[in-house]
Design a protein that fits this description.
Blueprint: E1 6-8, E2 11-13, E3 16-19, E4 29-36, E5 39-43, E6 49-56, E7 59-66, E8 69-70, E9 72-76, E10 79-89, E11 102-104, E12 107-118, E13 134-139, H1 144-148, H2 154-160, E14 169-174, H3 182-189, E15 195-196
Parallel strand pairs: 1-4, 2-4, 3-5, 4-6, 5-7, 6-9, 7-10, 8-10, 9-11, 10-12
Antiparallel strand pairs: 12-14, 13-14, 13-15
């Protein structure tokens, strides 16, 4: 089995793909390609190069994955499992090259997330989300100040109040990772139209 991943200008169907495997001799690189019905395993943190990649009906297994930036990607009908933190999924198309990030019809219910930033392309209501204490904050430059007024841990409030890249983005936090009264936080968030939690 090869742990090296170098996929360029291909359609890959029903294969096992590794991103950031510790036994790999070089960083993973996937560009201008579509992965369909694949088992994709993302391990730890890595300097992966992903550009213009479509993940279609894939299982994305995050094994303590952190500090990943998946900008020019589409995740369509994918199921995510494991742990993902301190990562970015999707980004506004600053180069205007015609490839827009998209995250649609995905199942995140078995993924533990903390500080995952969906910066562009997320179809929020088409996806399934993990249950409380996971919280999704919908941010625009107009709403971020109102969100910042919520009674939240300082680390969360500071990040929610940062400038929004693009028109709208979403930050996902696992509130159990912060020193706070979860009952009080849940009550505080229940009335906000820009907060989503199961």
């Amino acid at each position: 089995m090869s742990y090296e991943t170098d996929i360029q200008n291909k359609e890959v169907i029903a294969e096992e793909i590794f991103i950031g495997h510790p036994k790999a001799k070089f960083a993973s690189a996937i560009s201008n390609s579509t992965l369909k019905n694949c088992e994709v395993t993302i391990i730890g943190s890595s300097s992966t190069l992903l550009s213009h990649v479509v993940f279609d009906n894939c299982t994305i297994n995050c094994k303590r994955a952190s500090s990943h930036i998946f900008q020019s990607v589409k995740f369509i009908h994918c199921k995510f499992v494991g742990l993902l933190k301190d990562s970015v999924i999707g980004s506004p198309d600053l180069d205007s090259d015609g490839f827009d990030a998209e995250i649609r019809d995905c199942d995140f219910t078995e993924l533990e997330m903390n500080l995952v930033d969906f910066r562009h392309g997320l179809a929020l209501t088409s996806c399934k989300w993990p249950s409380w204490p996971h919280v999704v904050f919908e941010r625009t430059n107009d709403t971020r100040q109102a969100l910042k007024q919520l009674k939240l841990p300082k680390q969360v409030s500071r990040l929610i109040g940062m400038r929004v890249l693009g028109n709208k983005n979403y930050l996902v936090f696992n509130m159990s990772k912060y020193d706070c009264d979860l009952g009080s936080i849940h009550k505080s968030l229940s009335g906000s139209p820009h907060v989503f939690s199961n």
